[in-house]
TrEMBL record:
Keywords: ANK repeat, Repeat
Swiss-Prot/TrEMBL ANK repeat ranges: 197-229
Pfam hit, one: Ank_2
SUPFAM superfamilies membership: Ankyrin repeat
Species of provenance: Aquipseudomonas alcaligenes (strain ATCC 14909 / DSM 50342 / CCUG 1425 / JCM 20561 / NBRC 14159 / NCIMB 9945 / NCTC 10367 / 1577)
InterPro entries: Ankyrin_rpt, Ankyrin_rpt-contain_sf
PROSITE patterns reported for this sequence: ANK_REP_REGION, ANK_REPEAT
Name assigned to this protein: Uncharacterized protein
């Protein structure tokens, strides 16, 4: 069953003060001896409030006085639907809040890097690299540049595996900007790594229609002789399927150009691979 923790009134007072931007009250509660290392019982975690409000001063005050960089709240230790699943403490510690940001909370996340001891996490939702890849092009900036630079300097790994055996790169290729996604691809030690289900980063990029990403992956040595052969589909078939169903994106021939680029790298449709003897045709399903 879900854990039940009574709300500590002092926790609620501090969370309320954070929401109100009342730094003086926050400091007074800390000076009274409130232990910020405890599992937080109020509805909103103060460090999350600091991020969403963009208050670097508040974030530093909280962390300097012991608040963990991970989401150390009672809500971290249960599913919000109150199911029986209870994550272990080690799992909760991977929810690094400086790695979960958008364009508004990025400055606070950058400041929190000063306190970070680890920057790789199996939970992509709290990966700084993933959050950077999710920024739209118009939101990349000198601040995000510095954040990515520092994160990589601290050892952030684009090939880091999650518990399911999937590489972070498989998610990064679906990012919303070209700048960091291309950089991350070029840092990968293996652009052809497979998920347990047999997906490559190129296959993910094709399904997602990430044309620029496909170009970079091909330049970096992505294999094109891959696909879901059981269902008689190659990565080129997937791209042709995407083109046919998103004709508005091909008005200037952008997708046609990538199809031809893949062909110059040796890509074939499933029918062509069977015809040329590259693979044996999969048996018909029962």
């Amino acid at each position: 069953m879900a854990i039940k923790i009574k709300i500590n009134k002092k926790h609620q007072e501090l969370s309320d003060a954070c929401c109100e931007g009342n730094i003086a009250r926050v400091k007074a509660l800390i000076d009274e001896g409130l232990d910020l290392r405890e599992i937080w019982t109020a509805d909103v975690y103060p460090l999350v409030i600091a991020q969403h409000s963009g208050s670097i001063e508040l974030a530093r005050m909280l962390v300097d006085n012991g608040m963990p960089l991970y989401w150390n709240s009672k809500y971290s230790y249960r599913n919000l639907d109150y199911s029986e699943y209870l994550p272990a403490e080690d799992e909760v510690r991977q929810r690094l809040l400086f790695g979960k940001f958008d364009e508004n909370s990025l400055p606070v996340s950058l400041a929190l890097l000063d306190y970070a001891q680890q920057v790789n996490t199996p939970d992509p939702g709290y990966s700084g690299l993933y959050s950077a890849s999710a920024l739209e092009n118009k939101y990349t900036s000198a601040i995000s540049d510095e954040y990515v630079y520092r994160l990589l300097e601290m050892g952030a790994d684009v090939d880091h595996l999650n518990p399911r055996g999937e590489s972070l790169l498989h998610l990064l290729v679906l990012g919303k900007n070209d700048k960091y996604v291309e950089q991350f691809i070029r840092l990968s030690r293996d652009v052809n790594q497979l998920t347990p289900g047999g997906m490559t980063p190129l296959m993910r990029a094709v399904i997602g229609g990430r044309l620029n990403v496909i170009r970079v992956l091909l330049e970096c040595g992505a294999r094109v002789d891959c696909g879901d052969f059981y269902n008689k589909v190659t990565v080129l078939d997937d791209l042709i399927w995407y083109r046919d169903r998103n004709s508005y994106e091909n008005r200037d021939g952008a997708i046609d150009q990538v199809v031809e680029l893949m062909r110059t790298h040796g890509a074939k449709t499933y029918a062509e691979m069977v015809r040329d003897g590259d693979i044996e045709e999969a048996p018909q399903g029962e």
